[in-house]
Design goal:
Helices cover about 75% and strands about 0% of the residues. By secondary structure, the protein is mainly α.
Length: about 450
């Protein structure tokens, strides 16, 4: 029994809150004990209670819940459905389609909805199937397929045009919203609410909407759409574990801009339940939230345990942020030699390309480590080679780097007391920024 409960506990721990809601609303169990078990799961998740399960319950019922729940989630999973479409499409094109596969395809045609998440992909597959039937002169099935393609030709074109406009709006948003009109944002809102549109276009409309208002630091605009999308996921729309990770990653961003940091932290933890290609990005966002909450050790442990993702990614921007987070957190405890080596290798490999990313955040903490470990020569050489101080001034950052470099030069007799005092006065005038004030205290520039 203990082993069965351990397996069930592991299954429960793997679930997103939205999955628990989805199971609670859609299960088809008749057994009162199982129904009570699922209701308890929902209640405990809502109230953040520890999971404690009835040891007197027949262990086979726990196994049944796991099996049936996985099957139910699979039926809603839009990614699994997309995998099936691709597999069928490949079989059609390569002439490996089986009679049973064809029966399934024809059955899917009968239940097709333009609002399906992958309705465009399904339609493309049926166009290939039409050619497959035509070449084999299979008139009966061909007629059904042709009727389907004709009936949905216009709705599919509408969805394609929506996808094209969505792409253009997203490009404008990613380009600092240049050319974006209020009518474009209204169109995104309308598309999100349109239950006749494809779920994929609706979800992407929500992402574009988020991007705009997060970039413009207007988080209050995002709460109602967030709640609406969450309710759709819990009802079975937009559901896959990949999408749920993305949803909670966006939820983190929204709550962070609203200064609701504890809720942002919870969402960030949930975004890591399922690994996607964006896992390092989600880790970095979650760790920035932990750092804000002064949970440096917890963030450092998470970063170190996910070093594999740092090594494997081709996303240089996330590599830079990852290392900046890591050395920042380890400065609160102990910086590992391997972290220093990774920072050094990054600067050597990227050279001036590092300035295409969040370079100031990275060098602010890398130089701080070099300074605190009394590596004066390394601070001076790195600044001279990459012109860090002058870049900082040109890009109008607060003088984190300048304060480290100039203090290092003063301590090594590289500048006079008079010049250093003048610069120190300039820095102290900018100490109304709390983070910069703490930085000056940390490097011993001021006592305030």
């Amino acid at each position: 029994m203990r082993k069965r409960l351990k397996v069930f506990q592991s299954f429960v721990d793997s679930l997103f809150p939205s999955e628990i809601e989805l199971l609670n609303s859609n299960h088809q169990f008749k057994d009162p004990e199982i129904i009570s078990l699922i209701s308890d799961l929902r209640r405990k998740e809502k109230n953040k209670e520890p999971s404690e399960f009835n040891t007197s319950l027949d262990p086979r019922k726990y196994s049944k819940v796991i099996s049936k729940s996985k099957s139910l989630l699979d039926k809603f999973d839009v990614d699994k459905y997309f995998d099936w479409i691709n597999r069928m499409h490949s079989c059609i094109i390569t002439d490996h389609i089986s009679p049973e596969d064809e029966r399934l395809i024809l059955k899917e045609i009968e239940g097709f909805s333009i609002s399906g998440f992958h309705s465009l992909s399904f339609y493309d597959m049926i166009q290939s199937y039409e050619n497959h039937l035509l070449m084999r002169d299979r008139k009966k099935d061909l007629k059904d397929v042709e009727v389907f393609l004709e009936n949905y030709s216009e709705p599919i074109e509408i969805e394609k045009k929506r996808a094209d406009r969505l792409k253009q709006i997203t490009k404008m948003i990613s380009n600092n919203s240049i050319g974006l009109q209020m009518s474009d944002l209204d169109w995104l809102r309308k598309l999100l609410k349109d239950d006749q549109a494809s779920q994929k276009n609706r979800y992407y409309a929500w992402l574009a909407f988020n991007m705009h208002f997060i970039n413009n630091k207007s988080g209050n605009e995002l709460l109602k759409p967030l709640t609406y999308v969450e309710s759709l996921i819990e009802s079975g729309k937009f559901y896959s574990r990949r999408i749920l990770s993305n949803f909670y990653a966006n939820k983190l961003l929204i709550f962070r801009y609203l200064n609701r940091w504890e809720e942002a932290c919870e969402a960030g933890g949930l975004s890591l339940k399922y690994e996607t290609i964006d896992h390092l990005y989600y880790i970095n966002n979650y760790c920035s939230t932990l750092i804000h909450l002064d949970q440096h050790e917890r963030a450092a442990e998470l970063l170190r345990s996910n070093e594999m993702h740092f090594n494997n990614t081709r996303n240089i921007a996330q590599k830079v942020i990852y290392l900046a987070h890591l050395i920042r957190c380890e400065l609160q405890t102990q910086v590992r030699p391997s972290t220093v080596r990774m920072c050094r290798e990054l600067t050597e490999n990227l050279r001036i390309k590092v300035f295409e990313y969040q370079w100031h955040y990275f060098f602010r903490f890398y130089l701080l480590f070099l300074y605190k470990s009394e590596q004066s020569g390394a601070v001076i050489r790195l600044n001279k080679r990459l012109q860090l101080e002058s870049r900082e001034t040109a890009e109008k950052y607060l003088p984190y780097i300048a304060s480290i470099v100039q203090t290092t030069l003063f301590l090594t007799l590289g500048i006079s007391q008079e010049l250093y005092n003048r610069r120190r006065d300039e820095w102290e005038q900018k100490s109304e920024d709390l983070n910069f004030r703490n930085h000056l205290l940390e490097i011993g520039v001021a006592s305030f």
